[in-house]
Amino acid sequence: MDTIEGKFRDYLKAKGLKFTPERELILETMFSFHGHFDIEQLYDKLHKKNHLLSMATIYRTLPYLINSGLIKEVFRCQNRPQYEKNFGLPHHDHLICVRCGRIIEFKEEEIERLQERVCKRFGFKTVEHRLGIRGYCKNCLQKIKNS
Amino acid sequence: MDTIEGKFRDYLKAKGLKFTPERELILETMFSFHGHFDIEQLYDKLHKKNHLLSMATIYRTLPYLINSGLIKEVFRCQNRPQYEKNFGLPHHDHLICVRCGRIIEFKEEEIERLQERVCKRFGFKTVEHRLGIRGYCKNCLQKIKNS
DNA sequence: TTCTTATTGCGACTAATTCTCAATTGCAAT
DNA sequence: ATTGCAATTGAGAATTAGTCGCAATAAGAA
């Protein structure tokens, strides 16, 4: 199957797990976010639509979505992990402003290539990689200078 | 001051903070680890040497060590952050085996250079950056193949 | 030596995540 | 269709990492 739901169904079946309405809703709602989201935002969005599933179900479903490669954890903010869909979008990394929390996404093919070269050197097979750069964004640097 | 302790004393003094025996022990013990460590390992090592300081003191001291640039958080394992000394050692990144937990350190100057170029493009000033690649190490790939 | 202010340990607290369990439900085999 | 079993669910209890408040203590500047 080529659709997102199809991929999830395939993954679950291969593990002897079930495709339930709850799992369908979680998948659908996660993919309705444009950028990254955390568990609380997901929970709120589900409940606003009167989909009253429990936190436990969300937490139990999350690893399946991550292991199936459909969702990935991208970084942490205030010690809360942020997730993002991992399908149809090209891979990108993040600049994270430690002052205002702004997130800048960027893509640098050459870095990806060099990473693959490193992995080859060690006979390592990548599942997932993450590059996060913390620092001060342009705006905040300006504000710091003016104070 | 050029020593590690000297740097820490300077940092504390500049902030109007005190250099206490507890902080000295924490610094010393952190630097006695060869690779990375987590808070629990640090606590155990201190207590085995009969240095009975409390978790609260460790947690309170940690940010000073990180902000002074002597220690850095390098990655998370089982949702626990791992720390590492950040002095005298060149910067490096990590391959993390998701099967056996093995950590491989590597250094790739070219990646560092490209990162700086990206930051310049966005007018971003780096405080800290981290690249972690999760996947399967050589050994585990072999074992998977043979099973 | 004195005095101010930061620091300490302790235990209570918080918030995120995981677990337990009884009731329910997908779905493969009849 | 029906059945049976293993996976799943929600609710709330339990766990865990990390933080906080407080009274007693101790750095270190004057």
Task: Describe the protein.
Two copies of one chain form a homodimer. The first copy, chain A, folds into two domains: 1-89, Orthogonal Bundle (Arc Repressor Mutant, subunit A), CATH 1.10.10; 91-147, 2-Layer Sandwich (Dna Ligase, domain 1). The first copy, chain A, has a three-stranded mixed beta sheet. In chain A, 46% of the residues lie in helices and 23% in strands. Chain A has six helices and five strands; from the N terminus they run H-H-H-H-E-E-E-E-H-E-H. Chain A is flat. The relative contact order of chain A is 0.12. By secondary structure, chain A is an alpha+beta fold. The mean pLDDT of chain A is 91. The longest helix of chain A has 14 residues, at 109-122. In chain A, helix 2 crosses helix 4 (55-67). In chain A, strand 3 (93-97) and strand 4 form a beta hairpin. Chains A and B meet through helix 5 and strand 5 of A and helix 5 and strand 5 of B. Chain A binds a DNA duplex (30 and 30 nucleotides) through residues 16-20, 22-23, 39-40, 52-57, 59-60, 79-80.
